[in-house]
Each structure stands twice: as structure tokens, then as C-alpha cells.
UniProtKB/TrEMBL annotation:
PROSITE patterns named among the record's database cross-references: DHPS_1, DHPS_2, PTERIN_BINDING
GO cellular component terms listed in the entry, alphabetical order: cytosol
Entry coiled-coil feature ranges: none
Name by which UniProt lists this protein: dihydropteroate synthase
Length: 387
């Protein structure tokens, strides 16, 4: 079995590195990364927290962590990895100086803190976001619901099957997809958004265009879900700030037309975290309230199969932002590439397996095509996690 770039870049170390110190908070944050480790569920999680040997993950009662994985970027590339308990980590932070100590303490607190409600939904439990593509060319279901009446009926069925969010999109962002003019995108999505919102649904608008964001919110959408984290359209960031709506910021390298043409990272999970940190800072600077932010690591967007696996495996790093996390793996090509090259609609088992991995790592929102199946799998995971 060949080593991945990530495995080659990571140097496991029995002890935390010495001699690192900085008073620059931003420099420390781009050098030292913490991820929850020693994860436990159910009675084991309660025993960890109750015995003072661990903390809840994201304020949950069904997940806790007793150890912390510490990744420290090395000069020249790559990172060292050490897994320690909290007292050891805290002592190391003090030895490194005030800047590192403050970063360690603040990140530990964010890993453990309860997440604010997102779009009125409690983040202390998992939620299902149903994918409702009103497009002729999406990679998995293009054309299936291009007729607004069909899309509205499908959205209603998703609600009945257990979705708590419906993500309506009028432009495919599959690899190689061409941009759709906002006017056409608005024509496709607004009737669907309005009808489902009038039925009481929590609707998300999946778009990178500011004009579509504004039109969909006016029609009743409660969430903006932008695969470019408000970078595609110069008006997107001020539009979301003005509308004061919750927004999902997703990581992407490149753009849909070119993103799968040899994407490159130093350490993919750390690079993704850095990019999202910049987008969170930009959103806050523009006036978007922090409690209105949710993060998506962007599985399949400018990433190889190995990158996708690395980012998902180390997605616990993103809990350090103290924000809700969304996972979108449904029917994606890396599932088929790891298996037997199944076409998109035959990737449900792999989708459920990846979603379960996300639940194990504390994701609060799963974005899926197959709502009933995801709800059932999620219910089983939740039952086991609380046992």
C-alpha cells in the first residue's frame, strides 16, 4: 500500500515540539492545530466528563473526548503529530509562552462549547438536509426535479421522511459544470423555495450568486449555502450581511470547471482549516454574526480521493472554530472510486458509511439525496450514542 501525501507529510512524535513560541495570535493559529481524540459515546462519554477526564464535544451529551491530537506545522512543510491528555497540552502551552497558552485554552473551550442554534435548529443533535436540485445537469439527479411541481412534491416528501432542512439549488457545481446566469437560476428556484417555505419548511438556497441569494431569501429561504464561501460573487458577502441570514461557508480549491485538475495541498486538513478561518474572519468583518455561520469542509470540491479521506478523517479540527459543521458526501465520486466504480444512484451504502463517520466526528448537519435512509441510519447512530 502506497503512502499518501498526507501520511508522508505527517511526522508522528512521542512528545510535543519544544522551542516554539509566539505572541502573534494569528501566527500561532496557523502553526498549532487541535483536534478531539479519544472520542467516546454514551455511558463512556458521560464517565469521561463526569470524572473530569474529558470534555463534551460541541456541548453534546452523546460525544466526548478524553485526548487531544496536536498538529504543529513544521518549517518547510508538513506537520508533527502528538496525541496527549489535556493537562500535558496545557503545560506545554504554558512552556511555549503566553501566545500559545492562550490559543490552546481558547481552542479547547471552543471544542467543548455548545453550539448556538442555526436557523432556529438546535445543534445538540444531528439534522438531515435534503438535496433538492432544480437543474437539468446535476451529477446525480440532473433533470429528475427540473419541473417546479415535481420539485415541490419531492421536497414535501423529504420533509415527511425526516428532513429538517431542504437545500434548493438551481445551478450544478459538479466538476466541469458551466455557470448558470443568475436570472435563469432565480427562475428555477424561487417558485420552489416559496412553495416549500409557505409549507413551513426551513429552506436553504444553494447558490454562489448574490442576486439569487436575495431573491430566494425574499421568497422565504432561511439559509444561504454557498459552495465558494462567499468568494464567487463580490456582492455575496455584503448581501448576506445585509440580509442577516445564516450562511454555510464551504471550502473549495479553484472553481467547478477546473477544481479537479490536479488539486495540491501541503497538509490538506490544515490547509482547509486555514482557508475557512480566512472566510470566517472575512464574514465577521463584513458584519455577519458569528452565530449565523456554519462550516462545510467541501468534500469533492478541489480534492482527490486521498484529500477527501484525509479531510473527513481529520474534520474534528474544524470543531476548533466553535461553529456547527455540515457534511456533504452524498453519492460523490470518491465513494465509487473506493469501491467498484458504481454510478451515483448506486452509492447509497457508501454514502451512509461516510455519513456515519461524520456523525462519529460530531457533524451536526448531513446533506443527503436519500432522506429516509439517512434518517434511519442517523436514528440508529443516535440511539447507540445515547445508550
Amino acid at each position: 500500500m502506497t503512502m499518501t501525501a498526507f501520511q508522508t507529510a505527517i511526522q508522528e512524535s512521542p512528545a510535543l515540539p519544544r522551542g516554539f513560541s509566539s505572541s502573534d495570535a494569528a501566527a500561532v493559529a496557523r502553526r498549532v492545530y487541535l483536534a478531539p481524540a479519544g472520542l467516546a459515546t454514551g455511558a463512556a462519554a458521560r464517565a469521561l466528563v463526569g470524572g473530569g477526564r474529558g470534555r463534551p464535544l460541541a456541548g453534546r451529551t452523546d460525544l466526548a473526548f478524553g485526548l487531544v491530537a496536536v498538529l504543529v506545522r513544521r518549517d518547510g512543510g508538513g506537520a508533527s503529530l502528538t496525541v496527549v491528555d489535556e493537562p500535558t497540552l496545557t503545560a506545554w502551552g504554558r512552556d511555549c509562552g503566553e501566545g500559545v497558552a492562550a490559543h490552546v485554552a481558547a481552542t479547547l473551550d471552543r471544542l467543548a462549547a455548545a453550539r448556538p442554534d442555526f436557523a432556529g435548529l438546535p445543534m445538540d443533535r444531528p439534522h438531515i438536509m435534503g438535496i433538492l436540485n432544480v437543474t437539468p445537469d446535476s451529477f446525480s439527479d440532473g433533470g429528475d426535479r427540473f419541473d417546479p411541481a415535481v420539485a415541490i412534491a419531492a421536497g414535501t416528501a423529504m420533509l415527511e421522511a425526516g428532513a429538517t432542512i431542504l437545500d434548493v439549488g438551481g445551478e450544478s457545481t459538479r466538476p466541469g459544470a458551466l455557470a448558470v446566469p443568475p436570472e435563469e437560476e432565480i427562475r428555477r428556484v424561487v417558485p420552489v423555495v416559496r412553495a416549500l417555505a409557505e409549507r413551513g419548511a426551513c429552506v436553504s438556497i444553494d447558490t454562489r450568486n448574490a442576486a439569487t441569494m436575495a431573491a430566494a431569501v425574499a421568497a422565504g429561504a432561511r439559509i444561504v449555502n454557498d459552495v465558494t464561501a462567499l468568494t464567487w460573487d463580490a456582492e455575496a458577502l455584503p448581501t448576506v450581511a445585509r440580509l442577516r441570514v445564516p450562511v454555510v461557508l464551504m471550502h473549495i480549491q479553484g472553481e467547478p470547471q477546473t477544481m479537479q485538475q490536479a488539486p495540491v495541498y501541503d497538509v490538506a486538513p490544515l490547509d482547509v482549516a486555514d482557508w475557512l478561518a480566512e472566510r470566517v474572519a472575512a464574514a465577521e468583518a463584513a458584519g455577519v454574526a458569528r452565530e449565523n455561520l456554519c462550516l462545510d469542509p467541501g468534500i469533492g470540491f478541489g480534492k482527490t480521493v486521498d484529500h477527501n479521506l484525509e479531510v473527513l478523517a481529520w474534520s474534528g479540527l474544524l470543531h476548533g472554530f466553535g461553529l456547527p459543521l455540515l457534511l456533504g458526501v452524498s453519492r460523490k465520486s470518491f465513494i465509487g472510486r473506493l469501491s467498484a466504480q458504481e454510478p451515483p444512484k448506486e452509492r447509497l451504502p457508501g454514502t451512509i458509511a461516510a455519513d456515519q463517520a461524520g456523525l462519529d466526528r460530531g457533524f451536526q448537519i448531513l446533506r443527503v439525496h436519500d432522506v429516509a435512509e439517512a434518517r434511519q441510519a442517523c436514528a440508529l447512530w443516535r440511539g447507540l450514542a445515547l445508550a
